[in-house]
Structure formats: structure tokens, C-alpha cells
Amino acid sequence: MSPTEEYQDLEERLRQTRPRAEAMPPALKNRLRNQLLQQASEKQPRFNFSPLRVAFGALALLMIPLLYWVWQSSLHNGGALSAVTRPDTVEPALVYTITPTPEDESAVTAEPPADWVEIRSSFPTPGMPLGMGRDTLWVMVAHELSSAEEAQLRMQLEVAAGPDAGRIVATSSAQVGRGPGTTTLSLSLAGEAVPEEGVSLRLSAELQAVNGESGQSYATAGSDEHSWPLMGQGDASLGRIPSALVMGNGVPEPYEDGMLAPGASNYQVEVVVAYDLGGAYDEGMVTLAYSLETDSGSSSGATSSHVESGSGTITFPLLLEADFFISEGKLRPGVEMWIELMGYDPASSEYVSLYPFEASQAPPTLQERLEIQSVNLGEDDSGNPTLLITIWYERKTGQESAVLLTLEDGSPAPIASVTHPIRKLRDNVSVALPVDLNAYTADMLLRVAVTMEGEANTLMDELPLLVGSLTGDRVDEVWLVSIASRVDEVRGTAQQEVILGYNLSEAHAAGMITHDWEQRTPSTGGGGGGGGGMPIEPGTGTLRLMVPFGRVIESADGARWPDGLHLRVVLMGQSGDGSFSDELFVLELP
Amino acid sequence: MEDEASLVERARQDPQAFAALYDRYVERIYAYAQRETGELLMAQDVVSATFEKALSHMNRYEWRGTSFGAWLYRIARNEIMMVRRKQRWTVPLLGEWTSPSQVEQEVQARQERDHTAMALDRLRPRDREVLRLRYHEELTHDEIGEVLACSSKNVAVRLHRALKRLKRELLRQEREVQFDVAN
User: Fold this and answer.
1) CA atoms of A103 and A83, how far apart (whole Å)
2) Chain B residues whose beta carbon lies within 8 Å of the beta carbon of residue A92
């Protein structure tokens, strides 16, 4: 049997797992094409994609859940999906839909039920507040038109109840053609028609004749489910979290490292939170809190992460006690999680609650952190040898402070030390420590340490440094220095710390070390994976990778290694024009 | 249709002809970038950077008898790595958080995912990449070799090994299901 025959069935199954992808919007495609042509004719190598971003950014944001839904559906169904799919194929957790409402009795329809319209998704989602700087509602509708060559798709937002019930506060419309399709429209609240804060706004959609004098309507959609509370019209620069989601990285796994209290049973989950911090705040913080209340007591925790102005996602790894789960992989219904976004006001050194819109119930529990990320050999301006130490820190306030960096060999006095001022809430800084490692033998194990005064405690981190790993003659290689497990019981997180050594030759302008890790536990079938990359400069250095989660096992030779972990590290060089070389060196562990 | 080698040659002399190559491959590269990044905005960035770099390096492009698309895939792959360098890789958003019950549904949805896709997810990244390039992107061995900078013979070996590991992973899953049923 040839290899092809042997795996014929498998190959077919693999093809069926191919995730669906959205077609490129024609306008975007044409614009990029024109820009490329213009660039070619003008022989100017740069063109700017950002105007397109502005136009399509919000649409793309709206499309992310839909894209995933299409992907999920294709995985489940194993077949292609049409551009418009009936709602019974939609997973309720991912995209909300409604059953098409019966057509208006007064409407004149051609051949029912040929025409239909459905509200597919929106941003913000129903129930989330409008106003407070979020004045535009984006809505995607699916529709099918059979009764005419074209029709007008009209959407409107109206006051749902109270004395102003039925008052229209925003409308939007578009022409649609015969057949199935999807259309995204925006409805803006700007203007005098905006009602008082606190009312609820309801959305409806209608397919109607283009020349609507006769009031001919083909199909309508909309219900009380599609409503949004209106908040006050305030500063449009306020921050917000557009969406947040709990997403387990596969089935949560029991965590058994031996570093937690004996008998403790904990599970690992990841929570992904999307945020958007804008306007007046350069820095801020996202806090994730969780709690469980049962008859026998309650359990809760919170973790925070620093964010900078702009939008992005944060993955919070959490260790949750077994009580949080009804069974393996299923969170107990009583588990509650909530998120908060705060902006940092440097003038008052205080955080301002931006989301949810009410004031924070309790001060955020931001943990102060300090880590050494990498150590490189370098030179100062006079050509003297230095150790270039890159650290990462996060603090509770932005007041001026300092970090102390030392190189130690175990004797009471450090070999070298330097103090560096810090001013930001969170930053990466590289500090040069004057030292000549040639004075030490290759087998000497030194230690780089960094300390910083926190609000209540002194923060400290250290990195083992094998002199030979920096002064050796390896070129364009990457190697493992050490691996250790780190558990932060306060934050409820666990990570594996992997220390790598590398040497990138001067033939490259710069370089990058990428890593992909995958972990699975055969006994539970659980697992996860991820990766990342860090830019490096030519020369020799030490780099720290943090791999979330993982049980540590002890092998026969006494070495400790995360159970079921596969780690692949790739060293690449980068030429002056920014292109990457082939893989210079690949380190695969174990 | 004009054959690709002469189209590439013409595009080298006359940059306007580059548009024909763009039309031929833009959707495929866009789809590839979406599948790899899971985000439309990021995919758009990857596509624009890919074609920009392809255009500016046309004179350095060497026709190797495979396809122009393989070179574009290679550039796009590099761009995706650049994206990974700029921001930590995170799990793409799957929807909106509203209630804990959704969490259960999310986890269940994952558990119910097609077995093959799940097994594919559990392979080593390098195995997964070669399988995706072959069966999701439908590239030939020669094209994959150009993307991954290795020989087509090496691609065949890697594919065979990856398929073998995938099959083993599927068998392992089936055994676990049987074990669960038995218990």
C-alpha cells in the first residue's frame, strides 16, 4: 500500500477541517490593488493601509465572532456554508439570532415566505449600554429577496417604552439586490433626537420596496431582545471594553505541581478579555474578578493587567479551585466573572473607572511585578564590556522610583551593580551593567538580580547566568539554560520559566527568536498551545520565555520537566530590508 | 490564460502587470492569513505587507518552476511571524461574554469539535503547519518546499510523518472515547 493510499481517508478528513475564511471585501481589494499599481508606477515603495482600517475596522470587529462561528460551523458540519445560513445552524453562545418575525399583516408580500430579513449580530451587543462615547451601533443583517430585483433595507432605533415610546432616534438604510446576502449598517445616535438617559432603545429591520409610497414591505425583523439601555451623552474619549469572553484553553486540567498546599485541587483555565482604552488615558488597567458562592461558603479572586492606549486582548491564566467546576471542563453555574477597565490619571496618580460605567466597588488588586527578560553582552559608548539587562515591571503608581541591578557570584558583595530610575506604571527597560565576563571561567554560574521597592514589599527577580553561555564560541545557535516552575499564589497563576541562551552572528542586522509550545496530558486529553516571538540584537544573550500552565514531572535522572510539553524554539536572522532568513537554528525540547 | 512564468517575467519588466498576479493570488493569501491569525484586521495587514514586499522585490524574485504563489505564501508566513513578534499570541475571540452558562457552552462546543480538527490541534506546530499548507492551502510539495525553505523530498517525508502522528492521535482519541463509554 502506498503512503497516499494508506492515508487517503485521513487526507480527506483533513481537507474537511479547513476553516472557512471570509472573502476579501471588494472595495478593500480594489483599493489595495489601485494603491499597488500607483506605487508601482510612481516607484515609491510605501503605501498606507490605515485609511482602509478606519473604514473597515469596526466592520472587522463585528465580523470576528461571526468568522469564528463560520469556522466552528464548518468544523461541525464538514461542508461549505452558504453566505446566508438559517439560524438553526448557529451556535447560540457565539452569535445571537432570532427566528424571523412573521411579516406585518398589513404588508403586501409577493410569494411568502420567499423574502426574509434577520438581525444577525451587533456591536455593542444587546443589553450593553449605548452612549457615553459609544454613540454608533453597528448591525449586521442577513436577508434574502425574491419578490423584486431590489429593495431598500431600512433599520431604525426607537424608544422601546415610556412616554416617548416609538420615537425614532436613529435610522440607516441601504439598497439590496435579489437573492441572499448580508449587509452591515451603522446607526448613529448623534444629534438632537437623543432622548434622556436611562431609556431602552429597540432595533428593527425591514426590507421594503424601493419606491415605498405604497408602504410595500417584504419582511421585517426585530424584537424586544434587540434593545440597548441608553447612558448619558458624555465625553466621547472614554474607554470601554467592547467584548470579553471566558475561553478555556481546552479542557481545564488538574494542576499538580507540588508547590501548592498539599491536597489542593486546582484547575487551569484561560480568560480572554478584549479592551479598548482611548482618548485621555495613555495607560490603564483591566481587572478580572471571579467568585463562587455556595451553601458552604464562598471563594473569590481577582487579577489585573496593565494596558496601554488602544485596543487589544489580554489572556488571563487562572488557577481555579475544583469547587468552581460541576464536572471536569464545566464551570458551576454559580461562578461569576466580571471585568473592569480603568484609566490611569498621572495628575492624581489614581485610576478612574471607565467600564462598567458605575464606580468601582473596590480598589483594583493590581499586583506589582518585576521580571528580568533577557541578558546580553554588549559595549558602552567607550567600548567597555557591559551586560545589557532587559527588565519588565508593573507597579501600582507612576511615582518616580528606582530599580537596583546586580551581578553576583555568591559572595557577600556583588560583582557589579547599577541603579536605574523608573517613572512609568509599566515598561520594558534595558540597563547596562559594566562588567567584563572574560575575567571568569566558562563554568562559573553567576546570578543577575534586580530589586525594586513596591508599595508594601520589596520586589525581586533573578536569572541564573552561566558564564560560558555568554562567552562561548557557538554562533547562530540557541540552547536551553534552565527550566523552572513558577506559581504565583496571589494571582492564581502558574507558568513555566524557560531560560535560553543564544548567539546571533553580526552578519544579521537583527533577529528574532520564536517559540511554539504545545502541552497535553494523555491521562485527561487536555492540552493547549501557543507561541510568540521576541526580537533580539546580534550577539550573545540569555532570554526568558514564560510558558503558561503545565504539571511538572520528575524524570529518572532527577530533572524536572513539564509533563507533556513540547517546545520548539527557532532562531532567525533579519536582513537590513526587514526580511527574515531561513531558520538558522531549531531547538526542540524534549 | 497566460502562463505564470511569462506573467511573472512581464511583471518584472512592467510593474503594471503585477496586478494580474495580485488578482490571481490575493484571495488565497487573504484566506491563509485569516486562518493563521484568526483576525480580519491582522489578515488585512499581512496581505498588504505581503504584496507590497513582493512588488518591491520583484527584481530579486527567482522563478523556480513552482508557482509565484509559493513565494507569496513564504512572504506572508514571514509577515505572520512579524505579527507574532509584535504582539503576544492569544486565543482569538470567540464571542461575547455575558454569563457563566455561556462558559459551559463554549467549553462544550470545543469538546464536540470534530475529532480530526482536535487531533490536528494537538500535533506539534511543525507537523500542523505542513499539514495545513498541504490540505488547507492545497499547496503542492514543491510549493511547500519553497515556503518552508526545504526540498520537496523533505516535504514528503515531513508530510508522511505528520500524517502518521495524526493517525496515532486519532486512534488515541478513539481509545479514550471507548474507555469513557466502558466506564
Assistant:
1) 23
2) 105
